[in-house]
């Protein structure tokens, strides 16, 4: 199976390096993406928005002569959902890692402070305690050293979708910061945050209790959870 891995904000494809070994060992082909503007701290992020990141994922799908599994962490969840909408016949499963699908007109996070075309990684004090669970001082230092500013447009642009076949693509939600029981409660209450998720016909939930960056805090467990979702799909 081909597995396309889309990182969350401030991260490049190498952020999946401790997650991929069990996937590779099981014989799957992994494609960790570095999205436009995330190549280096000094890369230009001018003119790069949400659509450019979605298009980069769609191009990766089109380059593979087979159906694929998409995995998106954090803001990458909104990106892979846009790609599912663009290629609903090519994606066999979407895996949302502490994230979910972003619906029509939604934005990933337009409250993040921007500096021109850049959204730098904020100070840790600006995150919720739940975000930082298990993220030790050593891991925080390593994260900040590798962090690349996110293109402002990716965080601020509205999502635009056009193909309701996206609701027929099976999804897996790996719930870290919020337990799956909380997500179910929000769906039942009609919370707008999970409205798009509630429309997907086939969703499975996997609890992996940790903070918002399980690829750093619990990478082996995250790799196992993704592998299990892929194996269930292949089966």
From TrEMBL:
Residues covered by the AB hydrolase-1 domain: 3-222
Alphabetical keyword list: Hydrolase
InterPro entries the record matches: AB_hydrolase_1, AB_hydrolase_fold, Sec-Metab_Biosynth_Hydrolase
Gene3D superfamilies given in the database record: alpha/beta hydrolase (3.40.50.1820)
Keyword Hydrolase among record annotations: yes
Xref: Pfam families: Abhydrolase_6
Superkingdom in the source lineage: Bacteria
GO molecular function: hydrolase activity
Protein's UniProt name: Alpha/beta hydrolase
Species in which this protein is naturally found: Saxibacter everestensis
Lineage, broadest ranks: Bacteria, Bacillati, Actinomycetota, Actinomycetes, Micrococcales
């Amino acid at each position: 199976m081909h597995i396309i891995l889309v990182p969350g904000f401030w991260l490049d494809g190498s952020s999946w390096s401790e997650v991929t070994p069990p996937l590779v060992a099981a014989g799957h082909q992994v494609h960790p993406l570095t999205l436009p503007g995330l190549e280096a701290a000094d890369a230009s992020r001018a003119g790069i928005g949400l659509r450019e990141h979605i298009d980069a994922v769609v191009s990766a799908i089109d380059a593979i002569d087979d159906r694929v599994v998409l995995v998106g962490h954090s803001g990458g969840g909104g990106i892979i959902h846009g790609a599912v909408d663009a290629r609903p016949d090519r994606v066999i499963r979407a895996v949302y890692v502490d994230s979910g699908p972003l619906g029509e007109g939604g934005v990933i996070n337009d409250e993040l402070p921007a500096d021109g075309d850049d959204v730098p990684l904020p100070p840790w004090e600006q995150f919720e305690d739940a975000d930082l669970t298990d993220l030790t001082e050593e891991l925080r230092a390593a994260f900040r050293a590798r962090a690349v500013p996110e293109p402002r447009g990716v965080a601020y642009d509205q999502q635009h979708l056009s193909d309701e076949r996206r609701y027929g693509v099976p999804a897996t939600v790996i719930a870290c910061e919020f337990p799956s029981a909380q997500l179910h409660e929000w769906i039942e209450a009609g919370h707008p945050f999970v409205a798009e998720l509630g429309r997907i016909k086939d969703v499975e939930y996997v609890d992996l209790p940790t903070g918002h960056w399980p690829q750093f805090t619990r990478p082996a467990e995250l790799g196992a959870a993704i592998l299990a979702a892929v194996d269930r799909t292949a089966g």
